[in-house]
Amino acid sequence: MTDAAPGILSADEVDRIRNDFPILHREVNGSPLVYLDTGATSQSPNSVVEAEQEFYEQRNAAVHRGAHTLAAEATDYFEQARERVARFVGAADDEIVWTSNATEALNLVAYSVGNASLGRGGPEADRFRIGPGDEIVVTEMEHHANLIPWQELAARTGATLKFIPIGDDGTLRLDVATDLIGPATRILAFAHVSNVLGTINPIGDLIRLARNSGNPFGTLVVLDACQSAPHLSINLGELDVDFAAFSAHKMLGPTGVGVLYGRSELLNAMPPFLTGGSMITVVTMDHAEFLPAPQRFEAGTQRVSQAIAFAAAVDYLDHTGMNRIHAWESALTQRAMAGLAEIPGVRILGPAPGQPRGGLVAFDTDGVHAHDVGQFLDDRGIAVRVGHHCAQPAHRRFGVTASTRASFYLYNTEAEVDVFLQAMSEVRSYFGVTGAAREGVVAR
Amino acid sequence: MSSPELQSLYQDIIIDAAKARHGYQPGLAGSAIGLTAGAASSSSTQTATVQTAAAHTELAAGGSATAAVATQSTVNADHCAASHQYNPTCGDELTVQVELDPAREGIVSVAWDGQGCSISQASVSLLTDLMVGKPVAEARTLIDEFRDVMRSRGKKELDIEVFEDAAALSGSSKFLARVKCAMLGWVALEDALLKLS
Ligand SMILES: Cc1ncc(COP(=O)(O)O)c(C=O)c1O
């Protein structure tokens, strides 16, 4: 892996990349930081931090309001940022709505559909109406952000929530999906890549099922792209999803900004979620007309500096090359999985080694609670995620309440994987547990 | 290879107590919520040593820290109360049941069910050892002192003369993320005692 294949980052290149991330050079508890928690939030290169700083130093102003020079420049930069992020995911500019994060983006869709169901939005919005007898289908591996908004929408409208179960191999039960998705299915919402299992879901098959559901209004396909947009080259237009959500902070960008992608035709027919300033045309004391998308979904003062920094982040990813990043992460993930498989008592959740997988691996350590594993690793400067990773049903499916997750990105090295594996090989004896997993023990 | 701080968090007393689990009684009333419910719940694999409560309180998964008072015939409901506590960050959950003497002045027994990390398990095990036989008023004072030390960010230590083996939990107070784990059982006992006051 050290000799540079054109399709993958080289070790030298990763070293150069690391120089762009000051935080990766700090120490934690006396050891060099080994940051394996990108799945929760990524680190930012200098160019992203500088873009935000430059905005505040040179052109801070409210966008789409006022006629002064700073306001015009800020608006210009803000809209250019939208274009760059749109291009990065294969969307048109007006198909990108800024939100606070992916969670808000998913809620935006759920609440707008709820508003349409209450009769808001006029006849154009009829296609979004949902009620008793209609079904929303999600999967058992969803992050709570792509589950609870649909639970709530179902509760508000009387629709029924159903889910596609996870098979023992960590992939979705497509056989069940085929039976589940039918004329009653109004919405199909699923993660492109699971943040716990790492499973890359068969997006083409699922979209085909939705397109052939036989629902008279068509089935709306909502993609949670939080763990795919940062790691895979994706083209939302070509994928033929209706909506997609992702967050900047998982892809080298700042916190506080995310994206709702929506097909232009749908966004322009959907009633707004948040209302107020900046999203209207004519307002009287008892009525308001709304701007077209994306502005109709961007009420109030926007997160301008974050959007601009987000654009710098996608530039960095683009410049490095998404396919090469994914190949590098995959190699690190397979190395980690191979090492973990050798450690007695460690059980990997999700697809087996060699199967398609995002750049992360979550696992259970027999006899040691994930929280204790995380504490032990942190003592050596290794940052991993422990807990249920906001996906309790996926954990319950595999008989655990919590797991430890290592996730990788373009700035991680083989040496870091080895430091992590060395520490993992010592965890169970540190806590006085040795030997292979006890027969039949799945949970602790 | 491990730092002194880590060693002070995971002293042998802690590791041993997390395994010994004094007072552990699977199938305790009100402990039914279980994030693992439906998969591999601990209660199904263990032989219950207490009678199950007549009223099996079903709580929604992820439910708040609600208590279920045991109502089985062998335990007088007037002298016995339980509290369920849940730590949503890591999914640790614990039900602690306390039984008082007829005058409701002293602790006769402490029993608990639940699962979690070594700190929460060790803490509730050591809590059980410490509290059985203590007057209720003293137990309350101990809980207050324990909380005070836990919130001190490593500045205060538990008095070994007073807290005995549980004094080993002092190390947790340096780790902000672990204070909740260490407190879980103590909060449950405090809440259960409150129901009997
Ligand atoms: C798959 C998935 N969906 C949704 C989210 C929510 O993202 P955010 O918290 O940025 O809204 C996350 C992040 O934790 C995730 O991994």
Structure, explained:
The complex is a heterodimer of chains A (444) and B (197). Chain A is built from 14 helices and 17 strands. Chain A has helices at 11-19, 46-58, 69-88, 102-117, 148-157, 174-180, 203-211, 236-239, 264-267, 304-320, 322-341, 370-378, 392-397, 414-430, and strands at 27-28, 31-32, 34-35, 96-99, 135-139, 160-164, 185-191, 220-224, 243-247, 258-262, 280-284, 287-290, 346-348, 360-365, 382-383, 385-387, 403-407. In chain A, helix 3 (69-88) packs parallel to helix 10 and helix 11 (322-341) runs parallel beside helix 14. Chain A starts with 10 loop residues before the first helix and ends in a 14-residue tail after the last helix. Chain B has a domain at 4-22 and 78-195: Alpha-Beta Complex (Sufe protein. Chain: A), CATH 3.90.1010.10. A three-stranded antiparallel beta sheet of chain B has the order 1-2-3, with helices on one face. In chain B, strand 1 and strand 2 (92-100) form a beta hairpin. In chain B, helix 4 runs parallel beside helix 7. The interface between A and B is medium-sized, with 30 and 31 residues. The structure holds pyridoxal-5'-phosphate. Residues 101-103, 143, 145-146, 191, 195, 224, 226-227, 247, 258, 390 of chain A line the site of pyridoxal-5'-phosphate (PLP).
